[in-house]
Amino acid sequence: MTRRSRILAVTVLALALAVPAGAYLKLGTRVGNRTESLRWRQFPVRYFITDSGVAGVTAMQFQAAVTRAFSTWHAVENIQISSTFVGFVQAPPFVDDGANVIGYLSRPGQDRTLAATTFTVDETDGRILESDIFFNTIFPWSTAEAGGTDRYDVESIALHEIGHLLGLSHSALGETELIGGGRRVIAAEAVMFPIAFTRGNIADRSLKADDIAGISDIYGTTTFSREFGSISGRVTKSGRGVQGAHVVAFNPKTGKLVGGFSLNPNGDFVIAGLEPGPHVLRAEPLDDGDVTSFFDDDFDVDVDFRVTFYERVVAVPRGGGTRDVEIKVTAK
Known about the structure:
Elements: E1 4-12, E2 19-21, E3 24-26, E4 28-31, E5 34-37, E6 45-50, H1 59-74, E7 83-89, E8 100-105, E9 113-122, E10 127-136, E11 141-142, E12 152-153, H2 154-165, E13 174-179, E14 182-188, H3 209-219, H4 222-227, E15 229-237, E16 240-241, E17 246-250, E18 257-261, E19 268-274, E20 277-284, E21 308-309, E22 314-316, E23 321-329
Parallel strand pairs: 6-7, 6-8, 8-10, 11-12, 15-23
Antiparallel strand pairs: 1-9, 2-3, 4-5, 9-10, 13-14, 15-16, 15-19, 17-18, 17-20, 20-21, 20-22
Helix pairs in contact: 1-2
């Protein structure tokens, strides 16, 4: 018997509540005492576009930008996903009508929300039944090839939201600074970082290593499992597990960063989707931003420790995993 529920994921100037599931933060639903990751079980994902535009962006320009964003996710090697644009509709997003609709809505009361994604899911297995995305019309938008001056880029935000639509939550691979009562992104190594770049920036039109590892964790083929490896272990402080630590694997040969989290009181973490070869590991507290952008309010995140590098370089085997790595951190 199918049980339906609605889940919301938000993108701001931040975003979604996630539940711990596996190597990455993936959107999910709790089934009894376990968590089922949200994922599509049938492809292609069929989506509609609301037949309305905003100043500077027609409905057709909006649709073309969204389709390019879908194509960027499709282009990831060794995964099995696909989508198709069905047509324009009059219906707005966020209507429980069984259709996947992407379009604009005016939400003046959500003055920090650029866009958001909702899901209707089967609570018994995490299967996504419907997903809508809305873009907030209180902000100025652009689909210009080089980005629009003082406007947010539709394709960049669509790429992030489609990551949610496919089941990903947020990555913590980014740096921000406090400015004007909020936070400004200085740099990000993941499209799924929860805070958007400033107006006119189009850097988030391309996926990073962390985004690719995350989507591959959900939809990877047997080739992906055979060609890539993983690192697993614990983050501990005074012999006890650290929950909610951000753990990052850095490949010194390629410069790629892939992150994960310690997702239970024992401090256990897994980082998968790593290219074979040496990696440098570090654990850091999730203290640069709002913890609720990554976890539910009731998830107890420990931020009382110093950034710590693992004492040795870790070799990742092809098609296998390096286990029992213990990163020992100290209190601030």
